């Protein structure tokens, strides 16, 4: 568990920059596809790109939602929603709280049409810039239950899954998989090529970053099914858990 030592300072949740967020729905429906008609019904803004590979049962639609990039992909038994910066260098960084709220409200627009769901996942990547390696390692130590000495270690990567019972779905557990690391890299802009999310590095932006990858998902051990009416509440529950992790670290 992360430390509660007096004097340990952690950044407010909204100082963490959102690289992207993702919803994933696993289902057994045969007619749920990321098509132009689906986009028009759920999102309603102009489309930028449409990818269709019927022989592989893979579809993708890409466009903007509130000046952010939205990419919806589908394949047999699965649909993924990705939400990221639109790649405008003049656009302010995406802060976690506002981005997550916007994304959750968006999936609520589809709630009436959601098929029977077997599993649901919410995830993404958030990051916190540091001026140098020493600061980055001191910062990420505040989210762990141990100290990291930059003089003695490098290439830090810490991954763990801590389950919690869901308050929304009875008898279901939520996997809270987190991956913490310090990276020596640059800012990334996400765009779409052939229906897939592609990360591009911003020139002259190389530095050190504390990075947290979140993957919250209903446990595959649960076989009771997830009612469509519960999806928005489940998404909000996972968002709340994510905020708690971003705020307090490995808890």
Description:
The chain has 251 residues and is α+β, with helices and mostly antiparallel strands. The protein contains 4 helices and 12 strands. The protein has one domain. 19% of the residues lie in helices and 40% in strands. Strands 1, 2, 3, 4, 5, 6, 7, 8, 9 and 12 form a 10-stranded antiparallel β-sheet that branches. The protein has helices at 36-42, 96-108, 133-141, 231-248, and strands spanning 17-27, 47-53, 58-65, 68-75, 78-85, 117-130, 157-161, 164-165, 173-185, 188-193, 196-201, 207-218.
Descriptive key words:
single chain; alpha+beta; ten-stranded antiparallel beta sheet; globular; 4 helices; 12 strands
Helix-strand topology string: EHEEEEHEHEEEEEEH
- Shape field: globular
What summary fits the major beta sheet? 10 strands, antiparallel
Q: How does the helix and strand content classify structurally?
A: alpha+beta
Q: Approximately what portion of the residues adopt beta-strand conformation? A: 35-45%
- Quick check: average pLDDT? 89
């Amino acid at each position: 568990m992360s430390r509660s030592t007096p004097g340990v300072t952690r950044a407010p949740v909204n100082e963490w920059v959102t690289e992207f967020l993702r919803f994933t729905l696993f289902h057994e429906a045969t007619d749920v596809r990321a098509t132009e008609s689906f986009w028009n019904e759920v999102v309603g803004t102009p489309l930028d790109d449409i990818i269709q590979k019927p022989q592989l049962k893979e579809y993708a639609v890409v466009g903007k939602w509130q000046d952010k990039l939205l990419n919806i992909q589908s394949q047999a038994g699965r649909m993924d929603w990705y939400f990221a910066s639109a790649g405008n260098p003049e656009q302010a960084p995406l802060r976690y709280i506002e981005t997550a709220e916007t994304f959750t409200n968006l999936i609520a627009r589809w709630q009436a049409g959601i098929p029977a769901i077997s599993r649901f996942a919410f995830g993404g990547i958030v990051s916190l810039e540091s001026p140098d390696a020493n600061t980055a390692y001191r910062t990420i130590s505040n989210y762990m239950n141990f100290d990291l000495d930059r003089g003695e270690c490098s290439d830090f990567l810490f991954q763990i899954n801590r389950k919690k019972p869901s308050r929304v779905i009875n008898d279901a557990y939520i996997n809270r998989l987190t991956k913490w690391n310090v990276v020596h890299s640059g800012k990334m802009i996400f765009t779409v090529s052939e229906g897939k999310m592609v990360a591009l590095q911003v020139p002259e932006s190389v530095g050190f970053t504390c990075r947290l990858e979140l993957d919250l998902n209903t446990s595959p051990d649960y076989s009771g099914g997830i009612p469509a009416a519960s999806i928005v509440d489940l998404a909000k529950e996972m968002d709340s858990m994510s905020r708690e992790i971003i705020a307090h670290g490995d808890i």
